[in-house]
Each structure stands twice: as structure tokens, then as C-alpha cells.
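Supplementary Note 3. Input sequence used for the single-chain structure prediction.
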Amino acid sequence: MKTFDNTSFSSASASTSRRDFLRHASLGLGGILLGTSGLAGSLSGLEANSFGPASLEAWQAGKQLNVALVGLGKYSTGQLAPALQETKLCRLAGIVTGSPEKVPVWKAKYNIPDKNVYDYKSFDRIVDNPDIDIVYVVLPIAMHAEYTIRALQAGKHVICEKPMAMTPAECRQMIDAAKKANKKFSIGYRLHFEPHHQEVMRLGQKEIYGPIKRLVADNGYVFSNDTPWRVDKELAGGGPLVDLGIYCVQGVVYTKGQIPASVTAKFAPKPANNQYFKEVEAGVNWQFQFADGSVADCRTSYAESLPNRLQAEAAKGKFELSPAFGYGGIKGTTSKGPMNIQNVNQQALQMDNFADCILNNKPTRVPGEMGLRDVQLMAAIYRAAETGQKVSTKDVQNIIDRTNSR
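The predicted structure, written as C-alpha cells, is reproduced below.
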């Protein structure tokens, strides 16, 4: 753990009204609110947002947990590294990369010492580095299980990007490795800490507009081969379903607050003369059926732009997020009007929450079992699309992120 300057808390708190502060605290953000224009929090904000006593002690002592990013692709470069400049309980301290040309750039930009720089061959030496507390695995999906298990065996806490792994069997191996190492293990589900999504959890699970009758979730864009591994089945495990559709899977499950009972699905037609979809699907449409008769109609695609929405139709009204799943800002509406919720730095809240779990020895809201659940649900979607039959999901891991007083 390293020291940091905590003066920004007091200066920012003066600009935060009591009304806005209490509204955000009531959403249970699980961390410090980070608006698109900067920080909006204070030491009292830490307390109100349910960080544990060990986190408050660390903040007062000016200490942070040190994070090493494994894989320096687009997500690490564009989202995680910048977010780690805004986190209050953790900081970017190390990198693992197979691209030597990236090392001097990252070292200079983020003041990373030589001893905290690894490649994939030297990665296991991280076991001897007490200055790394958390390893964040940000690699192609086929590499998630290997590097998560190696990091756990090296005695590090781990966040693994979504989807968790290629198969349910790999997911279970990762969960077992975390238990054996007695280390915290979390999946990179940033939206569980995002206030708009926490609000749809509350509206749906608490049936504020009555029981949900139908859910709709869409997420898709036109793939341009900017990340070629995403259409390599051996590395990605699938196409847009595992990359984009997982947000739809997540969204309808935590809005409904239930695991579906079954699924039907159909692959979308592949565009003519398109070289990207030789190994993976171009798109897939599916419907989850829930035990109470409600349904969730979902679509994902690499071949067309889709609305990027999460919508719920309930007995007494409806609510919707659109855009729902992106990094750059989420907007929500209900039958009563706009949600009027501040946008935040999603990744900063996610990583600070994980650090809080470590510091206070409490479970993460997005554990490996949740990652297993979603890999199982996506496997069921693929089976349904391949066979044309309704597929039961009765054996899927039964875990839900339950809303409380949010």
C-alpha cells in the first residue's frame, strides 16, 4: 500500500449540496461518486457510501492498495488506467505486457518502477513482489483462467474481466483456486456499481411499478476489426454474445431479480461477403422465459448498430436505460419522467469497491460464482440457437445481486 494526497476530498465536498449528496448516498454507490467533471466526495462521503472502517482508516493514513494490469490493450489503456488515477483506495502500480514497446510509455506516464514491470514469461515472479496487492486480468478470454489462477497462486487478489472464462469448467477451476489461496476474486462487472443500473435493480426487484411482465435488452455495433481477437473463436470463445450480449444477460437478470427458467434463440444472418464472421456469429437474438411467465427479449450483433438499451415493462408502468451499457454516459427514464442521476466513473467505483472488500474482508457483490452463472447462461443461448430447441437453465448457478435499500 502506498501513500496518496487526500486533499481533494475536502475541496470537492464544498461544491456538493446536501440534497445531491443524500440522493447519491441513498443509491448505495459503494464508493466515492466520480462525476464526468471530477470528484464529488469527502471523508463523510466514504462513511455515507458504506465503505468499511478499514477503508476509512486507510484513507486517513493515506494508503492505497496497488494494482497491476495484465494486458495493455484498449480497455486497460482507455478505461482502467485513467480510472486508477481517480480511485481513492487503490492505484496503478504495475503492468504485465507482451509488447515491449509499450513499457517505456506506461512507465513514464504512470510512474511505474522497473521492479513492477513483467512480461508473460516473468509473470510468476510477481509472487515475490509485496508491492502488488491486486492483479487485474485484462486479456483475451481464452487466457483468463490461466492468468487468474497463476495470480491467485502468487498470493494476489484478482479481478478478471468479463466473460469470466471459455467454459463453466474453467470458471469452477478459478473459483476453487481463489478458495484455496484464500484471496478475494471478483469479475469486472462495472455496471453493478453504476447508479442508473442500481436504480433499475431497485425498481425491478422491489416491484416499484408492479411485477415485470417483459424485459428488452439490445447491444450491438458494426465490427471494424479494431480488435481482431474478438472474432477468433479460439481466443474469444464466441462473437458479439460474449462481448456485448453478456451485458444484456446481466441486465435482465438483475433487473428481474431471477434466473430464467429456459431460453430460445436464433442466430442472425451473416452479412454477405464479410470476412469477419468465419468463426463466430454475426449476431444472435434470444428470449429468456422466467418461471412466472414473464420474458426477456434480447439482441446482440457485430453486424448492425442496435439501440443499446435495457427496458422493463411492468404492470403499473415502465422504466428504461438508453444508452444503457456504454462508458460515456447512461440515461434513464421511468413512467414518471427522467431519472436525473449523475453519471460516474464506473471503473473507478468498481475497483474502489473491490479494494474496500479486501480491506474489510467482506465478500464482493460480483464474485466468481456470478461469472460462472453468466457463462452457463450464454452456453444455453448458444445451444438453443444451434439446435432450434428451447433449452432449460435449471442447472445454472443461482446467484443474484440483490438490491437492499438502494
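The chain has 13 helices and 17 strands. Confidence is low (pLDDT under 50) at residues 2-48.
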